[in-house]
Amino acid sequence: MIRVPQVRVIDNEGNQLGVMATKDALAAAEGGGLDLVEVAPTANPPVCRIMDYGKYKYQMSKKSKEAKKKQTVISIKEIKLRGKTEEHDFQFKVRNIRRFLDEGDKVKVSIIFKGREITHTQLGMGMLKRVSEELKEVATVEASPRLEGRNMSMILAPAPQKLEKTEKPAKPAETAQDKAAEAEPREE
Fold first, then answer.
1. In a shared domain, residues 87 and 50
2. pLDDT of 36-80, one tens digit each?
3. Per-position DSSP letters for the chain, written without gaps between them
4. Is there a single domain that holds both residue 19 and residue 92?
5. Which residues pair with 80 in a beta bridge?
6. Dist. CA 174–CA 184, nearest whole Å
7. pLDDT of res. 10
8. CB atoms within 10 A of CB 177
9. Average pLDDT over all residues of the chain
10. How many CB atoms lie within 10 A of CB 129?
11. Quick one: which of 13, 22, 28, 30 has its CA closest to 47?
12. What b/e sequence results for 147-176 when a residue is b if at least 16 CB atoms lie within 10 Å of its CB, and e otherwise?
């Protein structure tokens, strides 16, 4: 509801109709089957536009949905290790971390210490350094290893992709005669 006596009016094609009484502006909008929408309420006099407000809201919702589609959501996956994790299990976890990084996700690698293992935090630090060394070509360390209570963790992010374009050897141009020769059945 527009409650000012006079407004500056812009029609649906962007042309200025000038300053007029609010009632006249409403009548002009209704005459065209459109709405009078206040665009700049703080201006003196306020600026109103004649438009199809329902169509405008629909277009804005479509734009916001398009923007949401183009967003990329980066989630953080967590891999948990222990200070005594054996070689095969370690390699299995590293393969999973590599897969997560290839999918574009960040990975939190946690070492969990139970009981008296907390006295050997250097084993956990060594294991986290080993993980970062094995994945240095596909990951960057976003948060270095740190001890939080009985857990030691670090965060790995996917490394920025290097734009290396390898040129493929060009195929020799095929002539029409070559194609015709291949199409004909051969008798031997």
1. no
2. 999 999 999 999 999 999 998 999 999 999 888 887 777 899 999
3. ---SSEEEEE-TTS-EEEEEEHHHHHHHHHHTT-EEEEEETTSSSPEEEEE-HHHHHHHHHHHHHHHHHH--PPPEEEEEEETT--HHHHHHHHHHHHHHHHTT-EEEEEEE--GGGGGGHHHHHHHHHHHHHHTTTTEEEEEEEEEETTEEEEEEEEPPPP--PPPPPPPPPPPHHHHHHHHSPP--
4. no
5. 110
6. 16
7. 93
8. 8
9. 84
10. 14
11. 22
12. eeeeebbbbbbbeeeeeeeeeeeeeeeeee
Task: List all residues 6 or more positions away from 132 whose beta carbon is below 8 Å from its beta carbon.
Answer: 139, 141, 154, 156
Beta bridge partners of 79: 109
Where residue 84 falls among pLDDT bands split at 50, 70, 90? confident
* Parallel/antiparallel/unpaired status of strands 35-40 and 47-51: antiparallel
> What's the structural domain count of the chain?
2
- Residues 31 and 93 reside in one and the same domain: no
CA 6/CA 4 separation, integer angstroms: 6
- pLDDT tens string 22-41: 999 999 899 889 999 999 99
Same domain, yes or no, for 30 and 87? Answer: no
Whether residues 95 and 138 fall in one domain = yes
Place of tokens 């060394």: 133
User: Closest Cα to residue 141, out of 161, 125, 156, 126?
Assistant: 156
